[in-house]
Design goal:
single chain, alpha+beta, globular, 20% helix
């Protein structure tokens, strides 16, 4: 398993679910969103996808709740937990199945957009050289309605 795959698994609850979030202080509007993900420094460019957010999905979760679930993960200890007012910042250390990682995320959100910068250092096994990565993600609403037949990933 490569570092990118492991990192994506560790932060998946935040990044993959964030597009479908309804925030306590700003409801994320349903519609079609463009999501852009890049890994600065690895030369892979920007991955762009489109996601349909239904009204029901928009009402289901809040960013605070999603981050709260991650922050309550028994395998992680967080030193920073700031969520609200259109901004979030978390940092801490996790130990998932022997993989120790230091994680830092920060970003902004509004009813129609979200940005996130994430950095992580992963120690794959004791004594191994740590692997560092950075990821940036942005999403923005590009249409109020989803095209017919849109998949909800």
């Amino acid at each position: 398993m490569n570092a990118k795959t492991l990192a994506a698994g560790l932060v998946g609850a935040i990044t993959l679910g964030a597009v479908g979030a309804a925030f306590a202080d700003a409801v994320f509007l349903p519609g079609l969103y463009e999501v852009r993900v890049s890994y600065p420094g690895d030369g892979s460019g920007v991955e762009t996808t489109r996601e349909c957010l239904t009204s029901a999905e928009a009402k289901e979760e809040s960013l605070e709740r999603q981050l709260g679930e991650v922050l309550n993960d028994a395998s992680c200890q967080f030193t920073q937990r700031n969520i609200g007012g259109g901004r979030f910042a978390i940092s801490g250390t996790c130990n998932n199945e022997g993989f120790r990682s230091n994680l830092r995320q920060s970003g902004t959100y509004s009813p129609t957009a979200m940005t996130m910068d994430m950095s992580m250092t992963l120690a794959p096994v004791p004594g191994a050289e740590p692997v560092s990565m950075q990821m940036t993600m942005s999403s923005r609403r590009i249409a109020a309605n989803c095209p017919a037949g849109s998949d909800n990933d």
